[in-house]
Design brief:
The chain is α+β, with helices and mostly antiparallel strands. Helices cover 33% and strands 8% of the residues. It starts with 22 loop residues before the first strand and ends with a helix. Bound molecules: zinc ion (2 copies).
């Protein structure tokens, strides 16, 4: 059995190896890893859920436009979110916009 090593710290991950229960980080760009649990958590901490780059430091906002892309992680770049939000907003028809605003208010 081959030992799966963490792509970050090079320690054995203690996992079964490629797929199965290996820890990979799915980003919009790529699948990164495998990682040991420790690195997985620290790497995951700053991967932007929209562009897949590290260094993100903003918690995504709780409300989305109907066609806005949802981040795949719990953190985003403020700029990425702003751009995606603006893009989605600009695409909405007036009816969609009104419905979206009503559903936010109804929560
Ligand atoms: Zn590691
Ligand atoms: Zn980003």
């Amino acid at each position: 059995m081959t030992l799966e090593r963490c792509s970050e710290c090079d320690e054995p991950t203690g996992r079964a190896g490629v797929h199965d229960d290996s820890l990979f980080l799915e980003t919009p760009l790529d699948a990164l890893g495998p990682y040991c649990l420790e690195c997985y958590e620290s790497v995951q901490e700053d991967i932007c859920g929209l562009c897949g780059e590290g260094g993100a430091d903003k918690v995504p906002h709780p409300h989305y436009w109907p066609n806005e892309e949802r981040p795949t992680t719990d953190i985003v770049h403020a700029l990425c979110e702003q751009e995606e939000c603006r893009r989605a907003h600009a695409e909405l028809t007036e009816d969609q916009l009104r419905a979206a605003l009503e559903s936010i208010r109804a929560r």
